Protein 1
Amino acid sequence: MLSIYNTLTRKKEEFIPISPDEVRMYVCGPTVYDYFHIGNARSFIMADVLRKYLEYKGYNVKYIMNLTDIDDRIIKKSIEEKIEAKLVAEKYTKAFFDDIEKLKVKQADVYPKATDHVQEIVDFIKQLEEKSFAYNVDGNVFYDVSKFHDYGKLSGKKLVELEAGARVDVNEEKKNPLDFALWKKAKEGEPFWESPWGKGRPGWHIECSAMSGKHLGETFDIHAGGNDLIFPHHENEIAQSEAATKKKFVNYWIHFGFLNINNEKMSKSLGNFFTARDILKHYSAESIRLLFSQTHYRGPLEFNDELLDSSQKGLEKFKNLVEKVSPHPVPLPKGEGVSPDFDFQSYYKDFESAMDDDLNTPQAVAVLFDFVRDVNKAIAEKENLPSEFYSNVKEFLSKTAQGVLGIVDLEKSEAQGSSVEKELIELLIGLRNGARKEKNFALSDKIRNELNELGIELKDSKEGTTYKKVKK
């Protein structure tokens, strides 16, 4: 039974999706005005781990991640780079996809862009206006937070206290300093779309409400993002969506902790950040994912080279085992040999128990390290292990370490192993050809026969010696 900490209720709850076999999940994606930093990567990777674990448990996950491709920061960058805002968004959208692919993050089912959903956004704002939750001031449309009585329920903030703190940033157009923009009137030279309120563009918060509603429905299972999005972004999404539909917006809110540099939150505004692509120049995706998995997703994570180096070192244990089993030494045929007393199911059970407890990846990683240690011990103690043992080892690593956490890459290791195997076979063929030239037919025949026993069949011709693999 999977339990998840729900930010909305401030407690761990049994996860029960709306549809028994399907999970509808929305994750706040990037604003594409720059390369995303490694702190953003933590949210993307941990959301990916959650999605993959849900799939591991047999759910069909409909996974949506939005792209904010029109925003004040994009416009500012377009002025700095002297190119259109659209071209800025296209440039950094491509960079985003390049970087998440390198981080082994599985593609979302849909990446809705704000600029492709302007009509849905306009229709959403019209609903709020008709229900008196929105008001227009000379082409700027604001959401009236005083009309939504549950405002603050996600963050735990009280409206009165928020209003007092917000008065330092007074906007004369607003009825209340906490009211937020649904539609922004276009300034001269800015990109714009036509609307009932004049030329302008959507506010940030309304984009997610409109796009999640279109792709997942008025109520869906999981909404995830970084802790910094709880207020005001996710709070405002709830206010807009529930005001418009009169239905619960999301059942489970999941938020990821900050990445810290010297105990201070990593952010672009503070200037203490590293881009994901910069880190990937020096460290593998697997080492970054292992580092993130060794801290619980809700807690803060200190980020530095020493921790990354330690993570990379820890990965060597997995790599060494993968090299032993992918491809593994040629075992005895199925049913032969002495199989160790190895309870694979107990490791599955322990892995699932950890992950079911609010995605306790540190404990899950500990289970995997125990598995690696115990498999190595079994290999060291037994000779002539049956093929089933190696297959079971690979299957466990494939489903857990690779399929959920993304900290090993069996396909890559097998490709490397295949390359080494090819070189060794060609080396033996070269030795055999040398023996034949020296008329050492005993050695020549021995090499051919030994390779044949391993399932490698040689064929001599005028052009030379070739080989093919045959099933034994």
Protein 2
Amino acid sequence: MGIRIYNTLTKKKEDFIPIEPGKVKFYLCGPTVYDYFHIGNARPFIVFDVFRRYLEYRGFDVTFVVNITDVDDKIINRAHRENRSPADVAEEFTRAYFEDLEKLRIRRATVHPKATEHIAEMIALIRKLEERGIAYRLNGDVYYNVEKFPDYGRLSGKKLEELQAGARVEVDERKRNPLDFALWKAAKPGEPAWDSPWGKGRPGWHIECSAMSMKYLGPDFDIHAGGEDLIFPHHENEIAQSCGAGSAQFARYWMHNGFLNIRGEKMSKSLGNVLTVREILKQISPEVIRLFFLQKHYRSPINYSEDILEETERAWRRLQNTYGELLQVENIPEDEFLAGKLPDRARAALQELAHHRSAFEEAMDDDFNSARAIGHLFEIVKLANRILAEGKPEGERAYVLSRIRKTLEGYDSFLSLLRKEESPATSGDFEKVMELLLEVRNSLRKKKLFDLADEIRSKLHEMGYQIEDRPDGSVWKKMS
């Protein structure tokens, strides 16, 4: 079975068939750089980063484009409040955006086009719409005439009359239709402006994504993604602009992630519950944030709360602790053990691993169901822990564990949940001190001084370290 994607345009799952075999052209709506991005913004950045990398894992050559809106009303308003230039505001928060992407272990896109660097392409696209009679001028502004595009509303699934009655649009009585949207805005005092056939001004938000996506991916490409809130009007208007200018289909598959709530409420400035990623990262590790989003299907709504984050962190520590133990297991070459020569228990363990590998990838192929896939990831962790609990890994047990480790590392090429490097709490002098404590405790147990041995265990437990007594000796690990 190949990859299937839920297409917002058709309202159903479809087989993923890229326009060019083996290659995927993928566009994600990026940030408007007027502030640090919040936890709601982080969801599409993380989940579509994983989807892009999973496509690469499956052998596709992916061109991934994520734009940067660096001219917008919000940027201009902040600049005026702070007595700065809009360019200065955009530069500061573009830099912060990339810093926070790196902290979240999100890979850079193939290209991050900036709106201000593609004004010429936007002007050319608007002129084409004007030549086709779809755009009209109005005192230095240029508007898109939605009634000239018969398919308007096909993404949101609403008819033009319904949208006219219920859509939130800018109120401008000069427009021919309330839903007509600005392609070009005439210059206002104190705002950035560029020369154009219609006089000085700046582009509308919607035309930016159409121009930049088509420049780097062509007039028709495979996947366009973003948050559910962008379906209307932003993505609806992109389709109207791009197809109105001559694109046959524009994007073939439209993918949208669900909303994020904060403690059961919609995130909003009025409620005072807007949480920036930069602040959250001071308390929560990036791997935990990634797991938080991946353990839920990307199209489902998700609730953010401290309790859920704590539960997610405990789950991540189970994963990381097991991986840390697997790193200590000798790497057994694949050809050293042949399946026919393995004991029945080892063969059974490998069969269990194969089952969960297959189920994991089936889940990811099924509309990128990371929630179901993560469940199988933790089943693999349980398998590893059962084998680790049997004693020092040697022979066929070490071989099975090395296969498990390679599986986890393979999946981590797109999940980015594991820390490969040793942490300070598991290296150097600290580790030697812990091993010495275990030796002292084992000596006390041999002398039947169980009260003292239990006291050491209890004190370490209070400090966040768990002692496990195994057949071949005691081991310690950082508790989740």
Protein 3
Amino acid sequence: MKKFFKIFIWLFIAVIFIGTLVFLYNKSKKKTETFTTEKPFITNIENKTVATGSIVPRKEIEIKPQISGIVQEVYVIAGNIVKKGDLLAKVKIIPEMINLNNAESRQKKAKINYDNAVLEYERQTKLYDEKFISASEFQKSQLAYNNAKQELEAAEDNLQLIKEGVTKKSGQTTNTLIRSTIEGMVLDVPVKEGNSVIESNTFNAGTTIAVIADMGEMIFEGTVDETEVGKIHEEMNLSLSIGAIDKQKFDSRLEYISPKGVEDNGAIKFEIKAKVKLKEDFFIRSGYSATADIVLERLDSVLAIKESLIEFRNDSVFVEVELEPQMFEERYIKIGLSDGINIQILNGISIDDNIKQKIKEIENPR
């Protein structure tokens, strides 16, 4: 029995030893390299740059009040279509106490003078009718009466204007009623009833009551890098991709290139603007992000290969051409336009050549 176990153990050790030798032998065997190839092809190549930006209305304005006060009523919401002159909001004036006190004092004095002028005018009228005074004296009292009446009306109008921002004579013509100055869509109403607003003047931009824009005329505003700005020009065609609208391209035409660059994260960028050609089936909202493809150069039906097949060495460009199966020759070529994936071949190879592509290791059997 003991002899059997000894034989078994020695056999087990022998199997492990032989297996290890086989493993090491297989691992040390040389491997051969085999290469796949690709042929040149005829294609169109475009060299283009990309500008990033957003879609905005060409005409977008902020409506601001001409007086300071409290928003009493708001008549529109975002999305409403308005015409020029349509009522947007009403502002209630909060008068300054000094001006209000002065206006009230003026009105009271004017009322006293008017009441006194009425009495004097009535008395002079009776005397004139009875021929006790001359016409010139009567005209003096009549003139004083008219002046007192005019001053009272002016004082009352001034008091009402300070309190309410409108007079009886002006009717709807008042700066307390905020109206649209253009036709378009209301994009935003940043105020609510009860909010305080400040008038627009030389020293203050004023509070925005509403933002209105003409959504029928949109433009693309974006930036291009300084390395590309010299290659573009006005009237170039752009192809827009809008992030919120999948699988749709919008044509546009370049209208403006900024003469001054702006630094952005260490790079110099130049602003561009392009008119967007809208489509009836798609509503483009203000502020949509977009990218514009600008074709700088295009070649049709040229001989090309994948750019990953070429090798750069010093100032020369090479590919490896298959002469016989798995036998390759390094060949100098001249290249032209590239789109980052495919590159134009000017000379050095033909469409029938096979170009070495990549390495695939296969175990060499013995």
Protein 4
Amino acid sequence: MIDELRRRWSIVPTWIKVVPVAMLLAGLSLAHWLLLPLRPDLSALVQRFFFLPLFMASLLFGLRGGLICAALICLNYLDLFSAPATGRAAAFLVVLEMLLYFLTGALTGFLVDRERREARRLKEAENLALLGQAAAAVAHELKTPLIAIGGFAQRIQRDLKPDHPYRHELKIIVDQVSHMETLLRQMLDYTRPLELRLVPVELSGLVKEVFTLTEAMAKQGAVRLADELDGRGLKVPADAGRLRQVLINLVQNAVQASPRGGVVVVRAQVDKEHIALEVMDQGPGIAPEDQEKIFFPFFTTKRGGTGLGLAITRKNVLAHHGVLELQSTPGKGSIFRVVLPRINGDAAQEEN
């Protein structure tokens, strides 16, 4: 019932929400100005009711609404500073009361904004869970017929003569089926629970393996791969296959984003408890409004992308008790940072 009320309230136009707050604030301000020269005691009582529109604005419009309403309320107190009878003590109390309005509006608005963000996050998580279940069911049903289609298409392609008129169209079928199989495999990987076999993994050797696997793509795009780990022997507890998948996806994305002649750099930042692997590119960067969405399933900024690569990458990193971070400046490139816990013995050895 509460969710239904929230949904209905969210579609109410903003001006309808503003009207009651504005009318209440205007009425209290008018009463304050009319009573001030005649009944200062009643005017002081009216001032206490200014908290009503303040709470309404904070609850309806969050932090911004609370601060704006507090500023409008404080306009009613400006005349007290110019009054000749106002002493330092009275002026100090007026300033405190004005600060109280701002503090109340800011605190209430902040809590309301936080609650709304949490509600949106839970709603998105619920939608993603439902989407994942549906995607897993669809992928499971489509997997077998796609494998059959792809297998028969490849067999026919091998049997056709090189100059056959339908050979090009058949190649398109084979490529598209392969693309759909990749998409289904990624969907299943995202929905399946992860089973990790954690062992000490030496990062320098793992990065060299990743560079070997992505070297062909880098050469095709005229992009240079640079390793700045310097063979320090840094180790993390990880599933080698899953962590390799994480780095391959990040390096491939960096290569695709970089211009011809660019450089993709992998380096490490180390502290006593964590190792942060950074993959840096020289691409166009990611727009600020897309930086939070980039890890959502099926959201992609690449033409022909599936939108599941970074979602699976993030899932793998979280399964390792790590964090995947993004730092991007439009026009200057992006840095994807994989923060993982260190092996305790490795940390102690480096300190010694």
